[in-house]
Fold this sequence. Notes:
- There is one protein chain.
- By secondary structure, the chain is an alpha+beta fold.
- The chain has a domain at about 60-170: Alpha-D-Glucose-1,6-Bisphosphate, Chain A, domain 4 (2-Layer Sandwich), CATH 3.30.530.
- About 30% of the residues lie in helices and about 20% in strands.
- The protein is built from 4 helices and 5 strands.
- Strands 1-2-3-4-5 form a 5-stranded antiparallel β-sheet, covered by helices on one side.
- A hairpin with a 4-residue loop joins strand 1 and strand 2 (about 95-100).
- Helix 3 (about 70-80) crosses helix 4.
- Pfam families: DUF3576.
- It comes from Marinibaculum pumilum.
- This is DUF3576 domain-containing protein.
Amino acid sequence: MAASAIALLLLGACESGDVEYSYPEKVGRNRYDPSGRTEQNTVFGPGGLSIFGGGSDAADGSGGGGGIGVNSFLWRASLDTISFMPLASADPFGGVIITDWYTPPASPDERFKMTVYILDRTLRSDGVKVAVFRQRRNGGDWLQEPVADDTATNLENAILARARQLRIDQAGG
């Protein structure tokens, strides 16, 4: 008890009365003031993480705004393209969509699962990657089976075509 009282006295004695503190002045107004500046400071620097939109994406037509971390056209096109499969997880900030296993009605001993990765904030041909998994039932066990080489590529092309159509529809309408 006495040691803590001595420590407090010593710490109090270290402070001098003539210390001058300076705080940075506010330059501009906050982002909610329409008459203020349009560039906002973020934790991740200029153009960094913008949870509620307001970034430069609307101006450049990339479609990455609106509260998600990836290109919105690719995101919506991916969800549209794989809408026949049940979703297990969808992360719009990380750009990952994971489906649950889907069994086609025509082949009950076969099932598929997909993971879609949106890799860019711009609408580009290399902005989407699809991984497809296939299993076949052997007795009571599901065994991993190879997927046709062009399956993932065909899905990526379908997503890109749908994303381009969504962008055209938005620009024209």
